[in-house]
């Protein structure tokens, strides 16, 4: 393990420390630490903030960089100084965060929810929530004078890192597992990163990338291992409560692989609560694929951490056998009186279609897992007609292969009769047979 590297630009950061999520040991933010040394690197580091010094009790407008329409809006709650050299280079060149919050009224009515919003992370530059973690990691790597940055990824983290690295000219190495969708491999390669397809699964890619970073001193962005990941991702929760007029929804539904997004969302809500910007915590609902359900299994067994479990879901972004942030994810669900649920792959792929058709949001499979859980959550009485629910759309459906070739697109000859026949036969609202002598589509 490389020795800690002091950061010249740690000035102004002395109101925060890293704190181990397991043993509570504190360490300075200015030292590069990936995990707790006392816990033999298994404890995850959480930012412990002296909220008084940041301005707890003051209005958000006095604390936030309100002119900043990116995650740097919340800079005073982040472990990387917004005015530092790294942040200055990445901040305007790769604008992540401040994504739209859509109100999904049609879907809320159909599902029987009071209100439903979709926080649409496809609006980030690489098309996924992972950009929030990657910009912080890139800024931190620049502040520490590193010129190579690396990560393990099932696709999205690598794309986000490669994109942010491209914007500032850092060299980037991405370790992906076998079976990563071609669209994601292409995206990462186009950003100019080295993409290494590891002969193994995501967990193998995590191990190999960590070893490579130690061996060659590369800055390591690995999810959860690098504490900037959860701290970057927490900004999605700060945005949600700000976009809801500084009010907490009743529940936030989050797809879970490593559990880092869930841990990050919890971090952001804890910050908002401690600052006095929301008066209660929403329930956090974590959703896993039943075919890769290590965190869900730990939840049902009452375990504190998620042990290894089989990982065979086709939702590759949550196909994790050894969750890197299981401990904090489980604590987040328990602390908020939330729940973990598991959904079948068939439910996930069906949800891609109904989510898109009833909300206008096209999700990738991992992201659709959250939506897939909603009908069962309502049926079980976990969510109901008075609840205000936020669903995270963690990644764009454009980045994954369609569930069926063409997704049901209909070839037509270039004439109106063919259009009329196709619209009626395609189930676009018409009933009965197309009248080929009358080429007006009957809606
Ligand atoms: C990474 C990812 C997830 C899961 O996040 P974890 O932190 O691994 O739990 C969910 N959806 C998408 C689209 C992702 O890229
Ligand atoms: Zn520790």
TrEMBL record:
The keyword Amino-acid biosynthesis does not apply. The modification N6-(pyridoxal phosphate)lysine is found at residue 130. The keyword DNA repair does not apply. Residues 96-395 form the Tryptophan synthase beta chain-like PALP domain. One of its GO terms (molecular function) is threonine deaminase activity. GO terms for biological process: isoleucine biosynthetic process; L-serine catabolic process; L-threonine catabolic process; threonine biosynthetic process. Its cofactor is pyridoxal 5'-phosphate. Pfam families: PALP. InterPro entries: Ser/Thr_Dehydratase, Thr_synthase-like, TrpB-like_PALP, TrpB-like_PALP_sf. Keywords: Lyase, Pyridoxal phosphate. Its EC number is 4.2.3.1. Belongs to the threonine synthase family. This is Threonine synthase. It comes from Actinomadura luteofluorescens.
């Amino acid at each position: 393990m490389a020795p800690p590297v002091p950061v010249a630009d740690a000035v102004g950061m002395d109101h925060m420390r890293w704190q181990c999520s397991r043993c509570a040991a504190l360490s300075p933010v200015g030292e590069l630490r990936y995990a707790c040394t006392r816990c033999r690197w298994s404890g995850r580091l959480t930012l412990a903030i002296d909220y008084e010094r940041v301005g707890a009790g003051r209005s958000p407008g006095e604390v936030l960089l309100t002119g900043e329409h990116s995650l740097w809006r919340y800079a005073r709650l982040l472990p990387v100084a917004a005015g530092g050299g790294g942040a200055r280079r990445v901040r305007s060149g790769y604008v992540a965060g401040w994504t739209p919050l859509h109100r999904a009224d049609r879907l809320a009515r159909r599902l029987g929810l009071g209100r439903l919003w979709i926080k649409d992370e496809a609006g980030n530059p690489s098309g996924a929530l992972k950009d929030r973690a990657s910009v912080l990691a890139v800024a931190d790597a620049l502040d520490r004078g590193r010129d190579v940055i690396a990560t393990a990824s099932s696709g999205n983290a690598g794309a986000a890192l490669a994109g942010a690295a491209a914007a500032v000219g850092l060299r980037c190495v991405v370790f992906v597992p076998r079976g990563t969708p071609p669209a994601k491999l292409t995206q990462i390669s186009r950003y100019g990163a080295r993409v290494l397809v590891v002969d193994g699964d995501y967990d193998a890619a995590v191990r190999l990338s960590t070893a490579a970073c130690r061996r060659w001193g590369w800055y390591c962005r690995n999810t959860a291992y690098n504490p900037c990941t959860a701290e970057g991702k927490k900004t999605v929760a700060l945005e949600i409560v700000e976009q809801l007029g500084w009010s907490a929804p009743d529940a936030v539904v989050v797809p879970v692989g490593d559990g880092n997004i869930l841990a990050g969302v919890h971090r952001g809500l804890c910050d908002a609560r401690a600052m006095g910007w929301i008066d209660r915590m929403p329930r956090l609902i974590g959703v896993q694929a039943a075919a890769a359900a290590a965190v869900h299994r730990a939840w049902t067994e009452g375990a504190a951490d998620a042990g290894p479990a089989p990982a065979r879901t086709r939702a590759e972004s949550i196909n994790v056998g050894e969750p890197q942030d299981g401990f904090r994810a489980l604590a987040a669900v328990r602390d908020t009186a939330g729940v973990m649920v598991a959904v079948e792959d068939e439910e996930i792929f069906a949800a891609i279609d109904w989510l898109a058709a009833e909300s206008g949001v096209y999700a990738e499979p991992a992201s659709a897992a959250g939506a897939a859980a909603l009908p069962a959550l309502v049926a079980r009485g976990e969510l109901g007609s008075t609840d205000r629910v936020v669903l995270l759309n963690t990644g764009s459906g454009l980045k994954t292969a369609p569930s069926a070739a063409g997704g049901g697109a209909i070839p037509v000859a270039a004439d109106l009769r063919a259009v009329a026949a196709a619209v009626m036969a395609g189930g676009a609202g018409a009933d009965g047979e197309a009248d080929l002598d009358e080429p007006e589509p009957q809606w």
